[in-house]
Amino acid sequence: LKNKIEIENKNSKHEIVLTYITSRGMWYDFSWKGAVEKSGGVATNIGVHFFDMLGWIFGKVQTNKLYLREDRRVSGFLEFEKANVRWYLSLETEDLPKQAVNSGTPTYRSLELDGEEFQFSDGFTDLHTKVYKSILDGKGYGLGDARQSIEIVHNIRNEKVEKKIEYPHPLLKKN
Known about the structure:
Low-confidence stretches: none
Number of helices: 7
Radius of gyration: 16 Å
Structural class: alpha+beta
Largest sheet: 6 strands, mixed
Strand order of the largest sheet: 2-3-4-1-5-6
Distance between the termini: 30 Å
């Protein structure tokens, strides 16, 4: 994806719709992950990796708007140097698209880039283990590499939810 963006080198911003739904049972709410003061909330717990990827590909964040913040759902708009991103993160099974429900898949990850969907629900197994191994091998990333994504999730936790929704994610309209 990064190579595709660099090759295109277009002058206008890309339009992105990021959707990440990973159904979690009630155990989540009673574990450390369900406690915002311990996990940072849904945006930090499941979204930080995607915000990091978006910054790596599309540059510095310029605008961070928050439209929904619930215990198990969060949604907003990020403007990067090279992209406008409408994003939606959820732990709710009811948010899964029909194709995921019908196939028994508890997770749905999708990035639409200018109308073209990149579905990446598979391929995340043992990803944390691979990254930790890389860190132990001395090939990890530093604070400077993660700074922007940490600032994004910090702002999401502390932003006021906007009443006027200028750039809604399609799933946001259903809630």
